[in-house]
Amino acid sequence: MYELTVVLPTYNEAGNLPALVHRIERLGLNSEIIVVDDGSKDGTAEVARALMNEYGNIKLIEREGKQGIDTAVRDAAAVASADYIAVMDSDLQHPPEMLPVMLREARSGKDIVVASRYVTGSANRMGLMRRLVSRAATSAVHFLVPQAKNIRDPLSGFFLFYRKAVSLEEATHGSYKILLEIIARNRVSAVEVPFSFGERYSGKSKLGLTEMIRFASLTFRLSDYRAAKFITVGLVGIAINEGILFMLEPHAPLLLASAVAVEASIVSNFIMNNTWTFRRKAKVGFFRGLVKYNFVTIVGGIINILILGMLVFAHFEYLAANFIGTLFGFAANYLGSEGIVWHVRLPN
Ligand code: GDD
Ligand code: MN
């Protein structure tokens, strides 16, 4: 019985696997290694078999065609014999010397230990472009998937988890971002430890357009498409606002008519968001929720106006300034709705 299973997904990593395996074996952990190879054409599987002859604790899963890291981890976990499972790149970007540190954290009771690129003490050898893309993707994830908010690097590919705390059944999309999926779908305790993200030793990254599209679709799926629904509700709200103003204007002073129209659209937006956008979350009580929603809407409106004012002051054209203000107001509304009105924090 092993304490730790190290999962190494490989796709054309023949030039990296031996060095990595030797370094893992040298740690002297009570561990096994499971290599999941997706039909590499550079002989990675043969290299793995040679390593199996050298060490008695290596398994090889061979699959046909590139099927993604998430399913690789799922398939490895199904045959893993240890309680703790570590996942890492096979290209030496993730130093295996971190494993004992991560294992120690896990033993002390954390369900997930993330080797993080973004906490104090981390070092990062990513190029400027990759760094920007990675930061933008991480921010988008934090915005859209609130369960990931308290993890600074939810897109890390280097992590260790307690097998029994995590369900991997949903990991079927062929995505790279299995950690994100685990955090979003399971109620787990997590901790991040800093590490130094190195350069790929040999070969090149397999992260291409397909992987990026899969990542985007995974993120939207995990967010339950709430942002898109929220925007749709907002557009319907504008139509309601205009419609009611049109009906009332002949019979009432303009500002009064407008106030009624605005409040009517706030109420209808609240109802639509409560029954549609956030329906997967426990619905909030009608009046309590409506009061909070009004508050959030007012704050969003104020932010919109403030940004508009600041940008006009900085000589922006007023419609462009207002458009940017609207975006910020929308973001504030959305985050406020999620955090204050509907309390979206828990796994889907
Ligand atoms: N079995 C299998 N199947 N392995 C794969 C597949 C696949 O479809 N795609 C990639 N791999 C293996 C690679 O051979 C490598 O060992 C590891 O998975 C990560 O792939 P890389 O190509 O090295 O990814 P990266 O370095 O660009 O991205 C890394 O950093 C990201 C954070 O910026 C990965 O760790 C990502 O998971 C991480 O999100
Ligand atoms: Mn890599």
TrEMBL record:
Output the InterPro entries linked to this UniProt entry: DPM1-like (IPR039528), Glyco_trans_2-like (IPR001173), GtrA_DPMS_TM (IPR007267), Nucleotide-diphossugar_trans (IPR029044)
Where primarily located? membrane
Keyword list, A-Z: Glycosyltransferase, Membrane, Transferase, Transmembrane, Transmembrane helix
Q: Where is the GtrA/DPMS transmembrane domain?
A: 229-342
The record's subcellular locations are:
Membrane
Coiled coil (residue ranges): none
Q: Which residues cross the membrane?
A: 254-272, 293-313, 319-336
The cross-references to SUPFAM superfamilies, in alphabetical order and at most eight, read: Nucleotide-diphospho-sugar transferases
Q: Name one GO molecular function term.
A: dolichyl-phosphate beta-D-mannosyltransferase activity
Q: Which Gene3D superfamilies match?
A: Spore Coat Polysaccharide Biosynthesis Protein SpsA, Chain A
Q: Please give, as recorded in its UniProt entry, the membrane topology of this protein.
A: Multi-pass membrane protein
Q: Which GO terms describe its cellular component?
A: membrane
What's an example GO BP annotation here? GPI anchor biosynthetic process
Domain Glycosyltransferase 2-like: from-to ranges: 5-164
Domain of life of the native organism: Archaea
What family name appears in the similarity comment? Belongs to the glycosyltransferase 2 family.
Q: Which PANTHER family match?
A: DOLICHOL-PHOSPHATE MANNOSYLTRANSFERASE SUBUNIT 1
Name recorded for this polypeptide: Glycosyltransferase family 2 protein
Task: Please tell me the species this chain comes from.
Answer: Candidatus Sysuiplasma superficiale
